[in-house]
Model the fold of this input.
Amino acid sequence: MAGPLSDRHVPTPATSDVGTEYNLWSNVTVSLGVVIGICVVLMPGMLLGAVLAWGAWKITRPSWPTIAILSVGFAAGLVIEAQLIPWLWPLGFLFPGRLYDLLPTSSVLPWSTAVWHGCAVELQGGPLLLLGTEAFLSTRERTLTSGLFTQARQRERTGSSQLGSLLHHYASIVSPVAKLMLASADHPPGGIRLGALRDNRRKPFDLDPSELRLHTFLPGASGSGKTTTLERLADGAMRNGAGLVIIDCKGGGLGGAAERLAKRYRLPFLVVDPDDPEAIGYNPCQGSPADIANKLIGSFTFGEAGEIYKQVGMHVVPLVIRGMLAAGLPLTLRQLAESCSLNGLRLLTRKIADEGLQDELTAIVDDADAAGKSGIISLQHRFGALLQGAFGPLFTADKVLDWEDVFARPSVVYICLSATAASEDVDLMGRVLIQDLKQACARRLRIVARGGTVAPVLCAIDEFAALNEAKQIIDLLLQARQAAMPLLLATQFLPQDPDLRKAVLQAGLLVVHRLEAADAQDVAAQFGTRPTWKVTHQIDWETGTTAKGSIRDVEEYVVHPNTLRRLPVGTAAVRSVATDRHAIVEVIPVQ
Done:
């Protein structure tokens, strides 16, 4: 069956008489109101009792069963001592002597002792009066008139009406920025202050660090404020003790923000950038032989016809790594490329004292068929492509990034990838980076499984879709949460790959800036819908609007796609799965 947002949605037939339901709630509301009014008129002391009961419940916070039992108990005392009540005693102030023939004598003696005794009795009805008032307010919300009024008021607040739109437009021009309206723009203890509510700039919108643990998806068009939001979220995470890793696929856009955050929290700042002469290098040959083989072979695409070359690589590379370690050779990509050739394997064999390893390496060269030899030669060319590409200088640097040190203690790592300038090289380097992060996740998961603790780190990938690695990113999303490595994925457009699109839209925290039409439709569906009433008015061509109309139940977007398309710069729609809340937030820039 088509969903409620489908163009071909067929309305579900009514299963009850909506008008009868509304009339029932209206009758209950009126009945409760009449009973409450009679009680207050006859026994005004119950009002004071209700106020005292409200204060007592506010301070002690008892359970609902306790409140009900106490209310009924006090009401029983009121019934037992009803003969002491001077009915309508306030009228004695205005009409002394008028009620003598109708009511007890005490009714015309407002200053007598009987009145004060009666007030004490009436106080006992206060808790039950308070419960009745709560019931009255609850049933009133279910009436048609109240529902329509509440719906109209919500539309005014969210700017759905013409008046609301004008007010929000005026506020965006003349009102102070959100930071100036808030009492404090700083992060609260143990929290992350993202910004202020658009509808009430004096009210902050705070996140709990646990809301970031389910991953964050940050889509938005260019110039909509994504960088500011990313920096704000990273600042809040670091305030709560997390480290930061930024992979910038735009190339340079977040370098300044990363450096500012590192200085602010006095953390080590490490830069991996082929265009920065002061940057450190990157060595993909870190880890066990199997880890290195998975990382490097996984960074290349082979296709169905080249599957045999992939198997050759997974066989040869671990043996070559073991041989390099046994021979005391440096474990670098250049040395690995030199060793992954027929002559290189022969030279490596002569430097090894381990006879068993010698035999294995010799067998690779001597027993290899045509496909095996072609696979070995292809490894040399593939590794050479990495060395001769835009990121080649990083692989030959003396000082390189050590992921073990990065994840051992909080630090800030900024990795600059320019997808526009060298898209093929970025694809290769991006696959290597994602493989390294996946292996780091696996190591951290083993530590957690043994009962150890790991330092939290936020991994932000800006324009992640440029990496063209849907499967690897999905795998990372599945592993990183339990490894205390939540991901923050930012992009201008939703990914085209359906599996990756589904994975990122299911992130625990959505922070959405302005989007184009098609993406706005998909993202708005993630915010969900809510039931509301649609009112129609009957039109008379001669007299105009008549007094007749209709009302029906409909589902409307919590955040409409048009709202996402028109979000101002620096304003985001936020949805948190962990706390089941949503809001339109003006993000506060990090100072």
In short: The first strand starts at residue 192 and ends at 197. The two ends are 51 Å apart (CA to CA). The first helix runs from residue 18 to 42. Residues 18-144 form one domain.
